[in-house]
Amino acid sequence: MKIKGLSGLIYRITELIMNFAFLQLLWLAFTIVGLGVFGIFPSTAAMFSVVRKWIMGVDDTPIFKTFWQTYKTEFIKVNGLGFIFVLIGWLLYVDFHYFALGETIGSSVLKIVTIFIAYFFITTCIYFFPVYVHFQFRFFNYIKYSFLYSVSSPLKTAGIFIITYALYFLLMKVPALFLFFSGSIISYIWMWYIYRTIAKSHQIEKE
After folding, report:
1. How far apart are CA 21 and CA 190, in angstroms?
2. With 70 as the cut, is the pLDDT of residue 86 above it?
3. Are 121 and 151 spatial neighbours (Cβ–Cβ below 8 Å)?
4. Buried b (16+ CB within 10 A) or exposed e, 120-149
5. Residue range 8-59, pLDDT digits in tens
6. Are 179 and 114 in contact (CB under 8 A)?
7. Could you give the count of Cα atoms lying within 13 Å of 36 in the half-sphere of its Cβ?
8. Is 35 left (phi over 0), alpha (psi -120 to 50) or beta?
9. Which end of the chain has fewer CB atoms within 10 angstroms, the N or the C?
């Protein structure tokens, strides 16, 4: 039975806060269970699978069951893709610092090119988990379509950057809020933005 009026509103807000906090704790706990380096990618994928259900209107989503199912079934594949991103990120980091040491025009040009590539790498990373939990693709197609979606909506991508930075700045002012809500709230915002992009592109294809 739904509670109406002010009591109902307070109940729904309290439930929402508890759900975000619980999801955040699951993300942290299963990252630790996976020894950090092996847990971060499946935990993040599992977190996005839960917020995807929320955004799609499945309000009675069993949080733990959904999280655990995604975590265990996608553990190997998402770690494989995750480590590819780590390798690419490391290479870009090394290249940037290597070219930064040079004082020639060629080095400056290569540094700018590296920054340009790094931007698209970061936007691809942002789109990766929402794409991963929404589609069933072949292994490398997750990276391909994450990149394509990121460049197809530059304004939304910029909006994600701005909102994420603002939210990060605000949460860092209160460490307790950052600990209990940072990952879950940011994943929700990313999934909400990117789900709209995906839904719009599918609508265009149908038309």
Report:
1. 17
2. yes
3. no
4. ebebbbbbbbbbbbbeeeeeeebbebbbeb
5. 678 788 989 999 999 999 999 999 999 889 999 999 999 999 999 999 988 7
6. no
7. 0
8. left
9. N
Q: Hunting for tokens 């991508």 — which residue is that?
A: 157
Q: What is the DSSP string of 125-165?
A: HHHHHHHHHH----TTHHHHHHHHHHHH-HHHHHHHHHHHH
Q: Give CA–CA dist 69/136, Å, rounded.
A: 16
Residue 84: strand, helix, or coil:
helix
Task: Enter the tokens of residue 97.
Answer: 């610092």
DSSP per-residue string spanning 71-107: HHHSHHHHHHHHHHHHHHHHHHHHHHHHHHT--SHHH
Number of H helices, E strands in the chain: 8, 0
